[in-house]
Amino acid sequence: MARAVGPNQRRRRTGATVVEYAIMLVLVAVVVLAAISALGTATSESFETSRDQIAAAVNSNTP
Predict the structure, then answer these.
(1) Rounded Cα gap, residues 46 and 15, in angstroms
(2) Rounded to an integer, what distance in angstroms lies between the CA atom of residue 13 and that of residue 3?
């Protein structure tokens, strides 16, 4: 049995389109950049704290 195909049915797609993949890629990139920024800030603060504590320990032992 043959079915008539209307204009809307010919354009129906069942997979993700290039635009959807591009949107997902942009969202993933934003999340990765935010995570790197947050970890970079936390790491920088940790190193600064360590540096200050080491400098204070060295200076307190100096006669």
Answers:
(1) 46
(2) 18
pLDDT at position 28: 97
Residue 16: its pLDDT value, please? 76
d(CA 34, CA 38): 6
Question: CB neighbours of 16 closer than 8 A, spacing ≥ 6?
Answer: 24
- pLDDT tens, position by position, 11-62: 556 677 888 999 999 999 999 999 999 999 889 999 999 999 999 988 886 6
DSSP 1-63: ------HHHHT---S--HHHHHHHHHHHHHHHHHHHHHHHHHHHHHHHHHHHHHHHHHHHT--
